[in-house]
Design brief:
This protein is an alpha/beta fold. The protein folds into two domains: 11-269, Aspartate Aminotransferase, domain 2, CATH 3.40.640; 272-397, Aspartate Aminotransferase, domain 1. The chain is built from 16 helices and 13 strands. The chain has helices spanning 11-22, 30-43, 54-64, 81-89, 107-113, 133-140, 143-148, 154-159, 216-226, 235-238, 259-270, 272-292, 323-335, 351-354, 364-371, 384-397, and strands at residues 47-51, 72-76, 93-97, 118-121, 163-167, 175-176, 179-180, 187-191, 204-208, 297-298, 307-308, 314-318, 373-376. A hairpin with a 2-residue loop joins β6 and β7. α1 (11-22) packs antiparallel against α11, α3 packs parallel to α4 (81-89) and α13 (323-335) crosses α16 (384-397). The protein is globular, with a radius of gyration of 22 Å. It binds pyridoxal-5'-phosphate. Residues 53-55, 79-80, 82-83, 124, 167, 169-170, 191, 193, 204 line the site of pyridoxal-5'-phosphate (PLP). Residues 53-55, 79-80, 82-83, 124, 167, 169-170, 191, 193, 204 line the site of pyridoxal-5'-phosphate.
Length: 400
């Protein structure tokens, strides 16, 4: 069976993890801080905080911005539940909007969904392709939108407009108009979950690229504390002789990254472009060569004049099929020993969101994208021969 996306774990990673385990320091410490610096350099931003997942990173930032009951956060209907879930955890309302045929949040839909309660917009770089950030930033900076914005605290007053918080769980290493993701939205959060391009088993990173009026260094320090119980000293600082007394500034969260996880991340980031992205692009190109010339298929965009994907998900669509026909095609692909997937079932189709009153009929593009989508295996260890098997299996599975 060809799996969907196993992680690539080799001796280099194992040796670094063992080195971390033997170093005498396994939780947040020197490796995590170095990993933060390396991500910051890679993305071209001054400040990055590592956390234990993208979900906790997104929630931490919503809490930092003061999101709570009565607030609205605009989220695409076509995403993983994590994006909207964190809004619910804060007691605010996720306002789901439709996407474009390219799977990415529709700026026109954002515009229609804006209200005086809108505090945050959360674009999601589905499959690794950056959203249209220039248009989104232009929208939140429009005089009308700023006038409508009702700040409820000092941070919101300082920004003076809705925050653009990017869910970049898929898009580490992607480019948007000459910048890496991480440097484009106000705040960007990456995921290092086991199925993502770069993995620390579980993990995430928050990149700060707020307007210059913000003191990013001070925000970084605040978040560092806020992600560790709101305590004045972390465990490493407390190991210094005599340095035992601490204070708790506020009731914070507990979502720090461990040095064991950072050890994996450091190895992977150092070879990410040359090894991981290079191989993923080769696989994407092979699929595009095979399916692009066959008009039963709609191939995904992953390189345009303004954007380069991180090649996270190869979201193939079948033309002129119903959801049930797509499901049957997937079944026949599985029967040929190839694992495929769907990214994603739109949120309004899931029980929790139906119970909130969302109806998929209001999201026609999300439904159309979903109903014809099949995600193909893409991972470093997938061989050329296996890529050919996947292509064969997919082609054999269609109604002729
Ligand atoms: C994986 C994923 C997340 C959550 O990442 P975690 O690190 O597992 O919290 C969020 N959003 C999207 C779109 C994802 O695919």
């Amino acid at each position: 069976m060809i799996p969907f996306s196993p992680p690539h774990i080799d001796d280099e990673i194992v040796n670094e993890v063992v080195a971390a385990l033997r170093s005498g320091w396994i939780t947040t410490g020197p490796r995590t801080k170095l990993f933060e610096q390396k991500i910051a350099e890679y993305c071209g931003v001054p400040h990055v905080l590592c956390v234990n997942s993208a979900s906790s990173g997104l929630e931490l930032m919503l809490r930092w911005f003061g999101i709570g009951p009565g607030d609205e956060v605009i989220v695409p209907a076509y995403t993983y539940t994590a994006t909207a879930e964190v809004v619910v955890h804060c007691g605010a309302k996720p306002v789901l909007v439709d996407v474009n045929p390219d799977f990415l949040i529709s700026v026109e839909s954002i515009c229609k969904a804006l209200s005086p309660k809108t505090k945050v917009i959360m674009p999601v770089d589905i499959a690794g392709m950056p959203c249209d950030y220039e248009a989104i930033m232009a929208l939140v900076n429009e005089a009308e939108v700023k006038k409508c914005f009702k700040p409820a605290n000092e941070i919101q007053k300082q920004l003076g407009r809705p925050l653009v918080l990017s869910d970049a769980a898929h898009s580490l290493g992607a480019w948007y108009k000459g910048k890496h993701t991480g440097a484009v939205a106000d705040i960007t959060v990456f995921s290092f979950h086991a199925v993502k391009n770069l993995t620390t088993a579980e993990g995430g990173a928050i990149c700060l690229a707020l307007p210059d009026t913000f003191d990013a260094e001070a925000i970084y320090k605040y978040l560092n504390t806020f992600s560790l119980h709101g305590q004045s000293k972390d465990a490493l600082a407390k190991t210094q002789v005599g340095n035992w007394r601490y204070d708790v500034y506020e009731c914070g969260y507990k979502c720090n990254m461990t040095d064991v996880a950072a050890a994996m991340g450091l190895v992977e980031l150092a070879r990410y472009d040359a090894m991981i992205l290079k191989r993923r692009k080769e696989i994407f190109d092979a699929y595009t060569n095979a399916f692009g010339s066959d008009d039963r298929f709609q191939i995904p965009e992953y390189e345009t004049a303004d954007k380069t994907s991180s090649y996270h998900v190869y979201a193939l669509r079948i033309k002129n099929v119903s959801e049930a026909q797509r499901d049957a095609i997937m079944q026949r692909i599985f029967e040929q020993e190839v694992s495929v997937n769907v990214h994603f079932i739109p949120l309004p189709m899931l029980t929790a969101y139906k119970n909130m009153g969302y109806n998929i009929a209001d999201y026609p593009v999300s439904y159309d994208n979903y109903s014809r989508e099949i995600s193909l295996p893409v991972y470093y260890d997938l061989t050329d021969e296996q890529v050919r098997q996947v292509i064969e299996a997919v082609k054999n599975s269609l109604y002729s």
